[in-house]
Amino acid sequence: MPGPGHPHARLAGTTSRFVTALAALGPGPYTVDGFGPLRARPMADLHAALSTLGATVVHTERAGHLPVVLSRSGLTGGTIRLPGDVTSQYVTALMLIAPYLPGGLRIELTSPLVSRPYLEITSAVMAAFGHGDVQVGDEVITVGPGAYRACRYVIEPDASSASYPFAVAAVCGGQVTVVGLGDEPLQGDAAFVDVLEAMGCEVERTAEATTVRRRTPLRGVEVDMRDISDTVPTLAAIAPFADSPTTITGIGFIRHKESDRIGDVLRELARCGIAGAELPDGMRIDPGDIRPASLATHHDHRLAMAFAVIGLARPGIAIEDPAVVSKSYPGFWTMIESLRRPQ
Fold first, then answer.
1. 176 sits in which H/E element
2. What predicted TM-score, i.e. pTM, was given to this entire model?
3. Which long-range CB contacts under 8 A does 33-36 form with residues at least 24 apart?
């Protein structure tokens, strides 16, 4: 619909980036904004790409950040160059609008691609809605011109959110089943249970569900989580309960998520008495005894939910700003309480 419009993404970085690209297709003006922590997150590469494609992009406060005003102005397709190691959300945002660009779009990546499974999800969803002319490569992504068509689409459970109840089974023992997350998941984060399996958990997958149970001590692991980076805080919450250190690599880019998901996680774990070290491309976390502490969430829903796993396993853990989970999982605390009660 024609502007003026004022979409407000609150704290949701994914939403803000997708809506920013979508706004470039309309006549505008559309002012995309968010709360303070979202305004601090980088958007410059996406804004520059949209400008190259012919959109009018006006920063009202700080260049490369929200708020930004967009409108269509001779929008074209063609070739753009974009870093692949900052966030896959820029690439996904452009893929989603690419069918409506004259001639489609070719995205040349100037650095190694991170979180590739999210681009595969994007391609699969686009195909489900009638546009299958998408090629996702390590260096180039191409999308042909076309259009979407309406369809009935079944959405599987959020694999990133499922990592938290799975983590509870890992640290507390017992068993957790997530119905609807089957043995052929679309989401890359479903592979988080493979990490738990390497730590000593038992994992059972059927067509309808995934179950995690633990009956033996946890082992530390060394794992590259480049493609499942949203579950890094979850593994960081499990690591202190293992019998050896856990080293996570391939994740340097998560320093620029809702929080610094390397430095902030390690600082909060230190408040619990857990030692660790920041690495150039990741972190190491040592096992240890959890002591009571109040843990800051740094405006990050994933930190709050990960720290809740620690609190369920050890008394005396308080989570500051617990409402931050509403960004992605409004019913999170109810779910956690259900795991506390005997079934």
1. strand 174-179
2. 0.82
3. 33/6, 33/7, 33/8, 33/9, 33/66, 33/67, 34/8, 34/9, 34/10, 34/66, 34/67, 35/10, 35/11
Residue 48 to residue 24: CA distance in whole angstroms? 12
Q: Has 230 been annotated as catalytic?
A: yes
Looking at the DSSP assignment, which residues form a beta bridge with residue 282?
279
**Alpha helices, DSSP H only, in the chain?**
13-23, 36-39, 44-52, 88-97, 116-128, 159-172, 192-198, 232-238, 263-271, 301-313, 332-340
* Distance in angstroms (rounded) separating the CA atoms of residues 192 and 179: 16
Q: Are 199 and 170 in contact (CB under 8 A)?
A: yes
146, 213 contact by CB (below 8 A):
no
Task: Write out the chain's pLDDT in tens, 343 residues.
Answer: 778 999 999 888 899 999 999 999 998 899 999 999 899 988 999 999 999 999 999 999 999 999 999 998 788 999 999 998 888 999 999 999 999 999 999 999 999 888 888 999 999 999 999 999 999 999 999 999 999 999 999 899 999 999 999 999 999 999 999 999 999 998 999 999 999 999 999 999 999 999 999 999 999 999 999 999 999 999 999 999 999 999 999 999 999 888 999 999 999 999 999 999 999 999 999 999 999 999 999 999 999 999 999 999 999 999 999 999 998 999 999 999 998 755 4
Find out whether 26 and 48 touch, Cβ atoms under 8 Å.
no
Dist CA 162 CA 181 (whole Å): 9
Instruction: Supply 202's token pair.
Output: 């038992």
Question: Residue 64 carries which DSSP code?
Answer: T
Residue entry with tokens 């774990």: 269
DSSP labels, 124-172: HHHHHTT---EEE-SSEEEE-S--------PPPP-HHHHHHHHHHHHHH
Question: Of the candidates 338, 329, 267, 334, which has an alpha carbon nearest to the alpha carbon of residue 301?
Answer: 329
Per the CB < 8 A criterion, the answer to whether 156 and 180 are in contact is yes
Catalytic, out of 45, 189, 230, 264: 230
- Region class of 297: left (phi > 0), else alpha (psi between -120 and 50), else beta: alpha
Give the helix/strand (H/E) hosting 104. Answer: none
